[in-house]
């Protein structure tokens, strides 16, 4: 039996490396009808902001080759409803929770983190993912993860709000010239780990009506079609860690994982945990299936510990 | 949304196609899916995966359930009606008997049934009529007088006219081009039928414009409209947030709600029809969490 446990930093260990991806799993109840969400290493919730948010108009999605484009616009109930309803429910079923938080200013991120910290079910939280890279905002200039200073500002303020034992993960965008400089800025500002990658900015034209297909015009591209971009981003940042250009911290890999083989690809590039996102729309029980397939694959390849496979492709 | 609807039971099964036949412009497909057949109620839908485990077409296609037979010769079966309009639906209609399709269901909320035996009018546009025959049967079992109105652009796009005559106490057919029944829209004969039968409920299934017009007619003639919407969905199970539409809640406030879990059946007078325009649904300014100036 392969030892699947993973170290998230700050002494946090998870029983296995599989997670949902933010925005692809809602807040747990829906997928709990298909599998026990407590079987996951962690459940990553949809990015939550300070106030309730309607999101964008429709159409909100377009299918693409091996993937999709979405333009949801961070629809959500606000952090108040999240800590009163969603988080206690996840705790009640025994889930380990990695809440994803968002904001339109660094102050809003800090406010959301503080409300989370002070909530009654906070003991179910194993870490916080800071979504600094959602492409579905009106002003692309607001994508913090395109700017090292803005990224560092958000991460620093969130880190201050959370107890020492809670690791903070910065979720990065691949839509940058050099992802290692953003990663480095986040880690220096106090991030305990990195989640890579968020969606890529894309666009689809409806050729019947000859107009943008999405109500929001542009959207985030996800699915198996972007997996090579995720592998590349994880590889580059892990390489920079090997070369001492930034401290070595855990990377949570996300982007186009549909099978155990796909997960192993991200792991071999340097990911210490794996999120399954868009594949859930195709197969609602994909996260637990990927975990089972990954475990079988590691076993077949002779690995005794999952951690031995992390970044194994470097130097081969 | 109620807790009950979210915890409603659902299953995922690899279903064998046991029959598939052309009906007018559509394909009528029967699947062996005993789990779905056992649980489903009229108005609910199934979400079908396209093209197998390695398919590049990732998103499920949703179809309202035409009929279930929980204890058929082959085990429980589920029937759907498919209009092949794109890559995914073309793959589905090309399945031959004994091929398999991955099915998730039943999904969404069913049509609410009246507690008293009131008269009901069931209105279907095109193959939107698919779930209405099953619904008609359930209503008549409760002692309701049931009339149906089936409409389409042309005769080949009507679905279930013969079945409607079997399932109801009266059928009216309309086509835009007059190739069958009376020329015009389903909303044309509706006022007379509601008034004559003193209908309490109008059930509708079809395109958004049609659902809006039958909601207005029902309201004007003292009936409640229950409409099943067709929004484009990526997952069908409530996690992707793409199938939202503006709907007024019991507190009087408008929210962007998921048509896959809070619908697909809504009370017509709760839908913010004013927000729909040419394939777009905008977020009404008074919706909870609506964008401030500058947008999200």
From TrEMBL, chain A:
GO terms for molecular function: dihydroorotate dehydrogenase activity. The keyword Acetylation does not apply. One of its GO terms (biological process) is 'de novo' pyrimidine nucleobase biosynthetic process. Keywords: Cytoplasm, Flavoprotein, FMN, Oxidoreductase, Pyrimidine biosynthesis. Substrate binds at residues 46, 70-74, 131, 198-199. The active site is at residue 134. It catalyses: (S)-dihydroorotate + A = orotate + AH2. Its main location: cytoplasm. It is found in: Cytoplasm. GO terms for cellular component: cytoplasm. Residues 11-298 form the Dihydroorotate dehydrogenase catalytic domain. CDD domains: DHOD_1B_like. Gene3D superfamilies: Aldolase class I. Catalyzes the conversion of dihydroorotate to orotate. This is Dihydroorotate dehydrogenase. The gene is pyrD.
From TrEMBL, chain B:
One of its GO terms (molecular function) is 2 iron, 2 sulfur cluster binding. Binds 1 [2Fe-2S] cluster per subunit. Keywords: 2Fe-2S, Electron transport, FAD, Flavoprotein, Iron, Iron-sulfur, Metal-binding, Transport. It comes from the Bacteria. Coiled coil: none annotated. PROSITE patterns: FAD_FR. This is Dihydroorotate dehydrogenase B (NAD(+)), electron transfer subunit. The gene is pyrK.
